[in-house]
Specification:
The protein has about 350 residues and is of the alpha/beta class. The protein has two domains: about 220 residues, 3-Layer(aba) Sandwich (Rossmann fold); about 55 residues, Alpha-Beta Plaits. The protein is built from eleven helices and 15 strands. The strands form three sheets. It has a six-stranded mixed beta sheet with strand order 7-8-9-4-10-11, sandwiched between helices. Strands 1, 2, 3, 5 and 6 form a five-stranded antiparallel beta sheet that branches. A hairpin with a 2-residue loop joins strand 5 and strand 6. The chain starts with about 45 loop residues before the first strand and ends with a helix. The N terminus is likely disordered. The structure holds adenosine-5'-triphosphate. The site of adenosine-5'-triphosphate (ATP) has 12 residues, from strand 2 and helix 1.
Length: about 350
Amino acid sequence: MNLRSGPVGSGAPASPGAPASPAAPVGPIGHLGRDGPVGGRDGRVGAVIRTRALTKRFGPLRAVDAIDLKVAEGDVYGFLGANGSGKTTTVRMLLGLVLPTSGVAEVLGESMPAARRTVLPQVGALVEGPGAYPHLSGRANLTLLDASGARPSRATNRRNRVAEVLAQVGLDPSDRRPTRTYSLGMRQRLGLAAALMRRPRLLILDEPTNGLDPQGIQEIRRLLLELNRGGTTVFLSSHLLPEVEQLCTRVGVLDRGRLVLQDRLDVLLRPTGLVAVRTPDAGLATSLLGPAVVHVEDDRLLVRSEDAAGLNGYLVGERVRVVEVGPYRRDLEHVVAEAVARP
Ligand code: ATP
């Protein structure tokens, strides 16, 4: 699967002694819930997005194949998938921009696209290449967008709100340059500013950090977390694992149109009950520990244990040279690789 691991940073640091290879044993680590309980960052419950067997075909291609998404109020939901896996098509169906071939999509409790007139004013969206009038400034674009909306604000309120959202996304409200001079990252920020104009209950963002440099990615990440803390539910599609790992409370993984994994991130990354040990005396350690050793690969062992320090003390006492020892945790890359590899 072509999910990229950069450029947000290295994600959660690997625990000391964690094997570098994702080829960890699947069995002893435990069952991966495919569909755990829906619950947001602060425990509020209620489906903000719900789909049932949502499907989109383009001729013979099932771009989206019978997916059941659940996004709870208060979630930051990371919708992961390689290029071409169907993320944008799903997002477009959620926003009523593309008609499903079959299945149901509910947003804020209402069916889409039928309820789009009541639903969309409560949703801020950023989908593929935000459009803007190239000869106008960012500020003028947002002013025009608001004035042409179904519920335009009063002129003073609008002026203030435009300045506020531009500052929120890191654009200078006094910048008069036309948007044709904007970099890709600035366009992306402007698209996000447009999505924020109406103080939406729900943000649906397709690859929101596309084109941003690492600092820009961090700024947008901070902004999304701040909005989430203020009560906004965030649904974002991404092919960047670290971005999702650092930002999201809940994760869904699309693979060739199928939803192969959906669960809370803390559940997916829960402790494994294993300790990773690196030692040049792997044979001796294995014979001392017996059936507690669940996996050996060269100088690396995975041992069933909750007590890394105790295990270290025991091995050293038995004259095993321990190079590294620590609790073994999987990162999202492992979890996703396993889900995608399942038949
Ligand atoms: P990316 O990250 O590259 O944007 P994605 O996960 O968003 O990919 P989609 O854009 O939803 O994927 O595309 C899913 C599949 O559907 C792809 O194979 C794509 O070529 C195909 N597809 C998308 N839109 C159409 C269309 N209008 N007509 C025919 N095929 C389409």
